[in-house]
Amino acid sequence: MAKAVRRYLPFLLVALALMLLPWLGLNPFYTHLGINLGIYVILAISMDLLVGFSGQTSLGHAAFYALGAYASGLLAVRLGFPVWLSIPCAAVIGAVITGLLGMPLMRVSGFYLAMLTIAFDLLTMTLIDQWPALTGGVNGLYNIPSPTMGNFFVLGARLNHRGYYYVVWVLAALAFIFQRRFVNSFMGRALVAIEGSPLAASAMGINVARYRWTTFVLSGTLAAIAGSLFGHNVGYLNSAAFHGVSNMVLAMALVGGLRYPAGPFIGALIFVLVPQWLNQWGLGDKQGLVYGLILMSSLVLLPKGLASFISKRPQLLRLDPADVPADGVENLERVVSYAHSGDEPPVLRLEKVSIHFGGNVALQDVDLEVRPGETHALIGPNGAGKTTLINIISGIYTPTSGETYFDGERTTGLPPHVLTQRGMVRTFQNLKIFPNLTVLENVMIGAHPTFKHAALASVLPLKALDEEEREAMAAAREVLAFLGLSEHENTIATELPYGTQKMVELARAIVAKPKLLLLDEPAAGLHNEELDRFEEVIRKLQQRGLTILIIEHHLDLVLRLADRVTVLNFGKRIFLGSPDEARADEQVKEVYIGGAAATA
Questions:
Q1: How many CA within 13 A on the CB side of residue 596?
Q2: What are the tens digits of pLDDT across the range 507-558?
Q3: Which among 427, 428, 418 has a CA at the least distance from the CA of 398?
Q4: Separation of alpha carbons 226 and 558, rounded Å
Q5: Which residues, at least 6 apart from 409, have a Cβ–Cβ distance to it below 8 Å?
Q6: Region label for 358, one of left (φ > 0), alpha (ψ between -120 and 50) or beta (otherwise)
Q7: pTM score, whole prediction
């Protein structure tokens, strides 16, 4: 209890100060500033969710802001909706329109998404000006219920600015709580993983397109809520009120600090107070210049934002790791345990798989079977097509011809996240560790397919969701303990040596509880002690009945571990057999060492 109080004390003190502000006997102007601050906090939270967690950049948030303002205003003015209904309806309208917009937008990312949101912003502002029958056009929309106009009623009670202040801050508090619960969960980890490496996130069972779309819709909905509050605050709308808002909200999120709980509040506070100070100093016409200097200074001196100066980065965990001990790690019973009979069909089967890249034939008519419980080595010289074949198996590439089957079902053309959810898990030749997650968070990403709840359920206090988080965390901590990585749990994974990062990636794959584990050069970069530990881990996994397909250039290691070996050369299979047969095969010897004896 004391630990929880210490953790939340700063937020409680800020909340208390905000509650008392209208009653401190200050000039009513400060209540007006407090209203604007609450609206800006919601806006900054919406941008932090989009940019900070999913890595998507919107330069058209003014459009979502305006959408909420006009939706609520029009419902109240044209249709006579009470404000307690028009504001949530504006949120729903914002969600529907951003959802529809997000469907094609989520096919792109980065620069292209930013450009498309700018286009939507321009379209929205043009429609506001050119549709006077609906929006009032350049003359604006009048008579919106507002405390300024004295016609803002909630359940029959007229609210002045003091009452409206609490309406705004209740919604800001709800937005804050929603965001923190959403991101301190499997959803937050998944979003940061997507930002770090969409390909690796997909290979961990995360539906990248759906999660990006969900975050885009939530961000737009929060911006629409902020817009509806703005509209009811001023009582009058035209397009000029939204010029520059997109840049401002992005700057608020960046200056405040992405992913930090206090970041949206700090960013919003700066952009509420600075205009007032500039006006007092007679520099009101220099706001753009000052905002640019603030943003540039923050990015150069404090690239993580001002919030990073006063607090540590919070972990994206629903539970405290101290409450989830790592027990029983000796044989990895919690995560890997398979029993096989002798008459089971192959776990993986490839039939005449070929793939062409333009005129280049990377693979041609490759057949492959991996039996339950075996370790199957896929070897060959550089450029033989090994990683290309793994990419086809794991759904990254679709073959030009041929079929793939996993666990008895045809899987040709299925995306990586679907294959991972079915039990096929891989590591990568080129290390793909999520750069903004701790070691524990990285490894818990492997357990993402075990979470069965919908994205929005992550904000609810569900006992079942807590149990899923507990199980995922316990499995991650056990695997880390087994690999000797427990001391690094709270370290950002990319700050570790390369060989240790490779072991973290292996741990992440193990936690996914694979039916088939695809290892693409997992021992590359490991020193002798790490190689011994790696071999020990693989043998433990073999003892637990795990099926493994491994690519590795350490021939002595891979031939010690393998039950069977497939050799590729120039995209064709030239050998299939036991390690001893591979050592004696003339074609294999010719490929590797020009006809000399192949030894392990």
A1: 5
A2: 999 999 999 999 999 988 888 888 888 898 899 888 888 999 999 888 888 8
A3: 418
A4: 58
A5: 422
A6: left
A7: 0.89
